[in-house]
């Protein structure tokens, strides 16, 4: 090795110009477009002088509402990236019949790996965590989450992971192993490139972010409830948040440990999962699914919570069988940890093991079924208003039952022996993740948007978005069920079987309909922002809501509530409203107090900045930069730990001024309601 | 490759369980979906005929029914799962006519090697079996994981390096079927489809005799060449030198197959799957 290359290797590790795919136009153009867009936004921000505002009000914010909004923004942007991948895959499978299609295997394989990784870790996760962040402290009647600065750290580390995944588009490559990177394929022997390293380090860094978010939300629900908010008075969404975050705290360390072992194999020549020297690939399968199965419930439980809120609010009734729902939620939380083996019935375990895990998996269908029936009876005897969130909820109930049916089907081992890894399975998990998690995220987005921003979303575009997404889902994924029944397996870059072709064409057409749905969703946002004055919500309670988040103004003041609400039963705000209408007044003239709130802190952003450097350097073996990033992140933490002031005081007069505006609006609402 | 057009007893039993399970669940699912749509429609706010019952938020009877319905369904399906798992254990022999045929399947990057140790022959990407006979498969992998699957014969099973999995099947009707790998294994993965020729038990010995006359010999040396990453377009056949070859592979006496060769491009290595076309 010449001396020049040695110096370069020390300075740049494995990185050189060949890392940039000049020979592949698609990622290069995509990367360039993204880069231009980012630069454009940055220049616009700087030129218009928005930078100080962004820095003080958003980037360094430790306000749970702002962090929640940023999580959802991240998820929405990544949804477009993951969706583009999906479009490319559907087009490839539509054209690659008896031909190579337009994507060579090494590119196609990156796309489906990135699609899965992005959709789970950087769309579904941040979306639900964002909604929980935004709503749960409000529903509990408190001023913030338990650890506000940690909350910001969690968000920015998640963003770091997303950034690294996107960086792989233009510098190097992403994993070509599928979204769970099974060894030995993901080991150094069979994947010598940086793709798996991008995958693993992105998930390690964002995994830390998810874990701290989980710890934060569990602590918030357990320790920070307002007066009278005992466990059995919490809104359903708080319960599902608790269950979901307990699962995060229990499951994510397994993922971290598993990926750490994979990385040790790849970086330091260990043999946890290699073919040689006693490595055991079946161990990886078990470990990754011991995290992976609870992960499914981490995502879908909050969605169940959202639907509980939405169905109850828009039916004008309390949730039917509340205690039964609590029991079902916690049952799912516990059982979901005992079923992971159903992901590999076909690996050769004996019939006893297969049958027991199959039956355990079916048992989860019982509490899930109970939930469906309780939503059904919540609608029974209600006065249902079909606003957009309720459309998503009904669409979910119908779609999710079908996904549940096919899910129980693949839990029957002999049926799974034919359906494992097939397109049927692909259809099944999209059925539950789109029909469950994504519909839930959209319902929550439509439902709580007025709370977050103080104006409603346009209903016409919202309903169009629902119908296109709903129909698009069926046209895209029902054909995949059929293809699975015709023996088609997943992840095929090309195929020669004539019988599969028509179904791939239909699925591609469905993808076009889904895309229109997404466009409608974007249009809804644009139109609503334009008409925001007409759509303004001055009452803080646009849907006639039942839980405490509707008791404050929209958007809520930074301290959420001028007074800690006093809760006397389930549906706390509904009780207050009923009470207030009877007495024709909402409050006596209260005495205001100073409120202490946590100071903004750049800790999260700076930490993530150094984590990004460290992650990138680890991927490319640039060791000096790894040390630099590590020291930087640690120093940021030390500086934060030695801070002198972490709170500031909002004086009572300021609280009073803000609260009186809110009260005026509400009084006029109550008197108007009285006049009617 | 239609799963509902089974060509052997295992596939028949699998697909029967599949279809039965769907119908058991549809009995619950269809009424539930209808109820959701009906309730949502009838109790719409604009329907003045619907009775508003805001206080109907708990009913012990309803709760009992809604816990019981899914529980009963699951008890029924759980029975199906338990019995089915035992009856259709892939490791359990499937009795047939004539003497059983032992086949040792090895997944390579990216082709299938089928070794017939008793007949001292081997084939690549084509599996020839006599109709009606008991087929005992032993499976392993030369490198990464794959899944051996012939949809119309039933049950699939993983192949893993250094390990042997077992599968028993039977093909009842003569004809051509297709098999594939059902677990992603790298760039050449889509080309791991293989032909399955189910021939008459009388023709099978002739086929064996013809194949045994093959010029090509499969031994450690030719196997090592075969397991290099790449796609096999032809359907080569071999005379098997040592019937213990499979054991040498499964016990890693022959080391696992190599991955892609590293070219100058360290970040984005190319591999045979792409170059082969």
UniProtKB/TrEMBL annotation, chain B:
- In residue numbers, the region (Disordered) covers 256-277
GO MF annotations in UniProt = copper ion binding; cytochrome-c oxidase activity; oxidoreductase activity, acting on diphenols and related substances as donors, oxygen as acceptor
The Cytochrome oxidase subunit II copper A binding domain sits at 98-210
Signal in keyword set = yes
Q: TM spans, by residue?
A: 22-43, 64-84
Q: Which GO terms describe its biological process?
A: ATP synthesis coupled electron transport
According to its record, what are the GO cellular component terms? plasma membrane
Cytochrome oxidase subunit II transmembrane region profile domain residues: 1-92
Localization recorded for this chain is: Cell membrane
Q: How does it sit in the membrane?
A: Multi-pass membrane protein
**Principal localization?**
membrane
InterPro entries to which the protein is assigned, alphabetical? CcO_II, CcO_II-like_C, Cupredoxin, CuRO_UO_II, Cyt_c_oxidase_su2_TM_dom, Cyt_c_oxidase_su2_TM_sf, Cyt_o_ubiquinol_oxidase_su2
Q: Which PROSITE patterns match?
A: COX2_CUA, COX2_TM
Do the record's keywords include Signal? yes
Q: Which UniProt keywords apply?
A: Cell membrane, Electron transport, Membrane, Oxidoreductase, Respiratory chain, Signal, Transmembrane, Transmembrane helix, Transport
| CDD domains per the UniProt record, alphabetical | CuRO_UO_II
- Name the protein family: Belongs to the cytochrome c oxidase subunit 2 family.
Q: What is this protein called?
A: Ubiquinol oxidase subunit 2
